[in-house]
Amino acid sequence: MTQRTALITGGTGGIGSAIVRYLARQGHKVATNYRDEAKANAWRDAMAKEGVQVVMVRGDVSDPESCAAMVREVEQQAGPVDILVNNAGITRDTTFHKMSYQQWTDVINTNLNACFNVTRPVIEGMRERKWGRIVQISSINGQKGQYGQANYAAAKAGMHGFTISLAQENAKFGITVNTVSPGYVGTDMVMAVPEDVRAKIVAQIPVGRLGKPEEIAHAVAFFTGDEAAWITGANLAINGGHYMGW
Ligand code: CAA
């Protein structure tokens, strides 16, 4: 396997940590961004104890200038970014009639505008080198909608629109662009959903349980391999059968 440099945004989170671990164990150099230094240091130490070395760079995915600086720093420390996983994301769940403009824009900026902010500084290098892998981590709720998530579902659906346009523009440069749409995975984000609401959601999952972060990381590794060169513009739903639209 060719060793690549992979930038995974939001790598310190639940699904992000699993992607970092998986790609690092495949032999890639891995990098992620952070905003909270104390949290980042604790996370980096925990990963190092597992034998996973991670390049960590300060960066706010909702801010284009911060992302340009972050990518420059990652490339100085780890080399040109060959694999980009747009994974960072937040929720601000509330029904739309109660939603503030702040709750709307926080989610659109961090989940959707981040795709512009982080991908824009890496795409030209990928095109010049004629190789790249870009994966958006979207959501089941971008596919089916979700009560209380007009902001999040709009951003997550938008991420796949981004994928299929970039896939067309960059196919002839050896760059594939795909989306992974996880269902409800047992991370802090999902555990923050009130227990009674969560129980009703889990009851709708045919496999009968929440997903595991590694089950999402496995799909990201699949898309980022050399062997996946002919898969572009795809969306892979991984949700325990919760939503089977196609
Ligand atoms: N369908 C229909 N009605 C629903 C409903 C649903 N799915 N969910 C709630 N309701 C109804 C309730 O039955 C209740 O009705 P009554 O008033 O008639 O009793 C009413 O909505 C409650 O409405 P409120 O606006 O008062 O609700 P609230 O403020 O208490 O909470 C909420 C609303 C914040 C959306 C809460 O229901 C919630 O957290 N839902 C979960 C949202 C969710 O799935 N988030 C996913 C987070 S994880 C993630 O995003 C990762 C990923 O990609 C999957």
CATH class: Alpha Beta
Q: Any idea of the CATH topology?
A: Rossmann fold
CATH architecture descriptor text? 3-Layer(aba) Sandwich
Strand order of the largest sheet: 3-2-1-4-5-6-7
* Major beta-sheet overview: 7 strands, parallel
% residues in beta strands? 15-25%
Number of strands: 7
Query: Are any ligands bound, and if so which?
Result: acetoacetyl-coenzyme A
Please give a structural write-up.
The chain is built from 9 helices and 7 strands. The chain is of the alpha/beta class and 246 residues long. The protein has one domain (5-233): Rossmann fold, CATH 3.40.50.720. Helix content is 48%, strand content 15%. α4 (101-129) links the parallel β4 and β5. The chain has helices at 14-25, 37-49, 64-78, 101-129, 140-144, 150-170, 188-191, 195-202, 213-224; strands at residues 5-8, 29-34, 54-58, 83-86, 132-137, 175-182, 235-238. α3 (64-78) packs parallel to α4. It has a 7-stranded parallel beta sheet, with helices on both faces. The structure holds acetoacetyl-coenzyme A.
Tags for this model:
246 residues, 15% strand, Rossmann fold, seven-stranded parallel beta sheet, 48% helix
Q: Can you summarize this structure?
A:
The chain has 246 residues and is of the alpha/beta class. 48% of the residues lie in helices and 15% in strands.
Topology, element by element:
Blueprint: E1 5-8, H1 14-25, E2 29-34, H2 37-49, E3 54-58, H3 64-78, E4 83-86, H4 101-129, E5 132-137, H5 140-144, H6 150-170, E6 175-182, H7 188-191, H8 195-202, H9 213-224, E7 235-238
Parallel strand pairs: 1-2, 1-4, 2-3, 4-5, 5-6, 6-7
Helix pairs in contact: 1-9, 3-4, 4-6
The structure holds acetoacetyl-coenzyme A.
Acetoacetyl-coenzyme A is lined by residues 91, 93-95, 139-141, 146-149, 152, 183-184, 189-190, 193-194, 197.
